[in-house]
Amino acid sequence: MKVLLDTNGLMVPGEFGVDVFEELERLGYRRFLVLRPVLRELESLSRLADSRRDRIAARIGLLLAEGCEIVEASGGADEALLDLALKTGAAVFTNDKELKKKLSTRGVTVIHLRQRRRLEIANRKEF
């Protein structure tokens, strides 16, 4: 199964020390996709984020993205994630509350960080 990784999903390892790829594999996901707009957000955050911690987490996310399939997409990251998830049936790993709502109401499987130490498939009622 395939999963699209959002910007904040790729920053989880730098922020919380969670091996997101191991966790995604535990959930049955083997193909990791990163959209070009997500890379652009990470590049921007790696230079301009308010905190040093966020800049470092974004840099770690960029390094991790190198091991993923990069998918060309235009527009903003959230819209591109929703569009590709709907077209391909891929799940999305994000912690963005608003994006989780949008995805869930459209029937997209959402994966998120739970208790700062593991990933789980979100239940629609959580939003």
Protein model, in words:
There is one protein chain. This protein is α/β, with parallel strands linked by helices and about 130 residues long. Helices cover about 50% and strands about 20% of the residues. The protein has a single domain, classed as Rossmann fold, CATH 3.40.50. The protein is built from six helices and six strands; from the N terminus they run βααβααβαβαββ. The protein has a six-stranded mixed beta sheet with strand order 3-2-1-4-5-6, sandwiched between helices. Helix 1 crosses helix 4 (about 50-65). The longest helix is centred in the middle third of the chain and has 14 residues, at about 50-65. Keywords: DNA-binding. One of its GO terms (molecular function) is DNA binding. This is DNA-binding protein.
Throw out a few tags for this protein.
alpha/beta; 6 strands
Structural domain tally: 1
> CATH top level?
Alpha Beta
Secondary-structure-based class equals alpha/beta
Number of strands: 6
Q: How many whole angstroms does the radius of gyration measure?
A: 13 Å
Low-confidence stretches: none
Q: Would you give the CATH topology?
A: Rossmann fold
GO molecular function, one term: DNA binding
Pfam families: PIN_9
Protein name: DNA-binding protein
InterPro entries: PIN-like_dom_sf, PIN_9, PIN_dom
Summary?
This protein has 127 residues and is an alpha/beta fold. 51% of the residues lie in helices and 19% in strands. It contains 6 helices and 6 strands.
Secondary structure elements and pairings:
Blueprint: E1 2-5, H1 7-16, H2 20-26, E2 31-35, H3 36-48, H4 52-65, E3 69-71, H5 77-88, E4 91-93, H6 97-105, E5 110-114, E6 118-121
Parallel strand pairs: 1-2, 1-4, 2-3, 4-5
Antiparallel strand pairs: 5-6
Helix pairs in contact: 1-4, 3-4
